[in-house]
Design a protein that fits this description.
The protein is an alpha/beta fold and 194 residues long. The protein contains 6 helices and 7 strands; from the N terminus they run βαβαββαββαβαα. The chain has a single domain (7-193), classed as Purple Acid Phosphatase, chain A, domain 2, CATH 3.60.21.
Length: 194
């Protein structure tokens, strides 16, 4: 099986309720727009979609999700999680984007504002197929440290039985990378996942 496509993965936007808000002197909204503008200006014609792997907002609130929806030019429709939703921002017009929640994303608000056609769930374990490749989206929870819930591991096991080539997407990393701060977020029982 020969497939040829590419995608961009971005994460940890931590967008506040307004574009003008600063977090310790830093503007998450400005940085997010700069990333999206860079994608639009440099690689948008070469990629099939963007996937964001969570921590879209912080703190979780109606206002933050409304601001995210407004920034991305999203229109509520019946698309099921994880998408793709069509975004229009910084030169990207009607561009497909998939969304996973991170530990800072409130699941009820995430579904309400991004996927009103999908009933809220405490964990968003879903999969989608693009050009014969399965993307398995695993939700490792709402705590800073990842957790491997039995339902998540069961979903992973069932998904891998399709026989399709698979890419696993998560918000939390699955291996230590040599950063004490980030490595503290790896699930204590990550070996169960492997």
């Amino acid at each position: 099986m020969s497939v040829s496509f590419s995608f961009i993965q971005i994460t940890d936007h931590h967008l506040p309720e307004t574009e003008a808000a600063l977090v310790r002197g830093f503007s998450p909204a400005y940085a997010f727009r700069a990333v999206m503008r860079h994608i639009a200006d440099n690689v948008s014609s070469e990629v099939d979609f963007i996937v964001t792997t969570g921590d879209l907002i912080e703190p979780a609130s109606d206002g933050a999700y409304r601001m995210l929806s407004h920034m991305l030019g999203l229109h509520a429709d019946a698309t099921k999680a994880p998408g793709p939703l069509r975004i229009s921002i910084e030169g990207l017009r009607d561009f497909p984007m998939y969304f996973l929640p991170g530990n800072h994303d409130d699941r009820s608000l995430f579904f309400h504002y991004l996927f009103p056609g999908t009933p809220p769930a405490p964990l968003m374990n879903v999969a989608f197929v693009h050009q014969g490749v399965q993307f398995i989206c695993l939700d490792l929870g709402t705590e800073s440290k990842a957790t491997n819930e039995p339902t998540t591991l069961d979903f992973l096991g069932r998904s891998l039985q399709t026989g399709l080539p698979s890419i696993i997407l998560t918000h939390h990393q699955l291996v230590s990378i040599g950063s004490r701060w980030l490595d503290d977020f790896v699930a204590d029982d990550v070996d169960r996942l492997w």
